[in-house]
Amino acid sequence: MKKLTQVEFKERRDQLAELMGPNSVAIIATSPVAMRNRDADYKYRADSSFFYLTGFAEPEAVAVIETYESIDEGYTYTLFCRERNREMEIWNGYRAGLEGAIELFEADESFAIAQLDAEIIAKIVNKDTLYYRLGHQTEFDVRVAAWNQQADAQHRQGNTAPAKIVQLDRLLDEMRLHKTESELELMQIASNISAEAHTRAMQTVKAGMMEYELEAELNYIFGKNGCVPAYNSIVGGGENACILHYVENDKVLKDGDLVLIDAACEYQCYASDITRTFPVNGQFSPEQKALYNIVLDAQIAAIEAVQIGNSYKEPHHVAVRILVQGLLDLGIMQGNLEEIIASESYRQFYMHGTGHWLGMDVHDVGSYKHGEDWRVYEEGMVVTVEPGLYIAPDDETVDAKWRGIGIRIEDDIVATANGPLNLTSKVVKTVEEIEALMAKAKSA
Ligand code: GLY
Ligand code: MN
Ligand code: MN
């Protein structure tokens, strides 16, 4: 099982310490456990940025990185975490404990999480800058503010609180936006498993099945590979595909309808994000096929636009032009191509963007603009390319034969010096490939 090594987590801490500069302190807390009801909690998932720096997946943990006046002094990485406790471990599972924090997770020092309030002040006083991820957890924000006050209250002893408090996310988000080879390997694994899940969905779908039954086929492949969904799966038959965030997945899949599946897993905290749309009965109708091929052409051209140096928005511009021309050709829209694009009246049928950063989070961190300008693709950035067309079931401005058809096709693309690299190419997407795969599954 491919996992990141501590060498990589340490490299990230080294990089962060360098970006922080001298005489600074960074405080990074993991996510709290989320309660589902009473004493039953949701399956725990560490905070992405905390995990990115530590590889530590247990709850109730805080990492602190301190730099000193001289860069030559290096930095100190302290991990506050749960102590080992035989009884708690019998009930709730293994803990690395304070020794494990040092031996397994390479902290320079470790303390019990219960010691955080007592130990943290000494790490804050007399630092120039405090780096903190403000706004993620209100309760923790309040504690950080209180620590800052306590540090400030030491001024008569000759100590000072940091003069600057800086949003740590700005540093970490930029680091996370550029993926290393190892990160791309994990994303490729997540993508392969997700592609297998979509392939299985195409092979197993039948008219009369419930949408959640098809979702179960996806979950089987995710679970069999030790993965969890990276986001709530969308399995929308027929007109449900026109609801962009449809997650009820509780309707019958009907003969003659398409089904849109937007579902993918995360592997070792790295996400994939795939959408495929295919006919429940294995054969596209002429209308479905006509619309599908417009979306496919738009998607293929938009992927080609993920070139280093191109604007983040270029795939969207490319996709919109092809989608609008296709709608004009089919008579679904009337008018002038340039005017429709300029007025954005196409949003009646295509109302979302064409992609987003992808990484540890499905809608990953990283800025989209530098100042006024959309930023450009750089080596190792990963973006989704996901154009679609959605003809609302009650849209009386279009011929009835088109209504209720919703289509999206989504792949995950890495910007590389050799051009766009598609991580999710293992699941078919042309009409011919889909129909052939589904026909083969039926005859088997
Ligand atoms: N699955 C969420 C998205 O495509 O943005
Ligand atoms: Mn997406
Ligand atoms: Mn998606």
TrEMBL record:
| UniProt entry keywords in alphabetical sequence | Aminopeptidase, Hydrolase, Manganese, Metal-binding, Metalloprotease, Protease
Q: Which domain of life is it from?
A: Bacteria
Q: Please give the cofactor(s) recorded in the UniProt entry for this protein.
A: Mn(2+)
The UniProt record lists the Aminopeptidase P N-terminal domain at: 4-141
Q: Which GO terms fall under molecular function for this chain's record?
A: manganese ion binding; metalloaminopeptidase activity
Catalytic reaction list: Release of any N-terminal amino acid, including proline, that is linked to proline, even from a dipeptide or tripeptide
Q: Does the keyword Protease apply?
A: yes
Protein name as catalogued:
Xaa-Pro aminopeptidase
Supply the gene name.
pepP
